[in-house]
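ARCHIVE CARD
SHELF: 3
SLOT: left
DATA:
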Amino acid sequence: MSTIRKTARSLFVLALLATGLSVATPANASTAINQTPCGNRGDLLHVWGHISGRPLIEGPNGPFEVCYANGGDAQLGNHAWIDQVSTGNNDILMHDANGDNVLLFRLNFRTYSQAKHITFIKII
């Protein structure tokens, strides 16, 4: 067999392997989370908190209320403090600014006497 044919065949096999791996590897779901209006729904991840310590140029300090649906990560930033959270029908992982991870299971409602400094929340 000629060298050109061997090289072509090797490249073809390599291309097939690369295609197979890209099809078999699932896409990253971390971008699937959606912010959604809260309304009266109990199935959503519902977060109450406040923004503290932001430079005035970025906007005012104060309370916020936000809801999320679907799996993935929600970045809250470095100045978010969580006062209450309702997991709805979601298992969630909250990442504290000090490096701790807080796992809460579905159908859970928490009120924190001292707000948690959460930088992002992941719906698992």
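SLOT: right
DATA:
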Amino acid sequence: MAERVTEFFAVTKTSLYRVRAERSEPNGVPLVQKISQRADSAIAVGGRLLGGTHVAITRRGLFLYCQAYSHRSWSDERPQRLEQVDSWLWGDHTSPIIGLFLDKHEANACFAASRRQCCDRRWREATSATLATIGDDHPVFIISRSPVLAVIC
């Protein structure tokens, strides 16, 4: 079995984030930390998103969220996607996604580029490769497949 990806980088309309699936306990909080920014934001460089146990990857941004309570153990079922849980279970989120990267240098190049757009075609290949590496069965990083939220680049 291939090793799961534990880190990727997300460039948004305003910022660059490091995203890590670091959990010290089964329901611990993943790390979504801002490492650069272009504009004023509620979260400063070095700050992190709060309020969830899973990272939803959507075209509207990265969202932290908790899955809805179930009578079964969380470890017994696949994590719910963001669009399957009530919005009151959503935590902090980023601005819309420009591109996703496994390599920090590629993410920095995207972040430094001019005229960036949501799901920018210049970084389609890197975004698609990152999503493919994460896959549909990651325990922390959950890719939205909703027609409205899916990262289709």
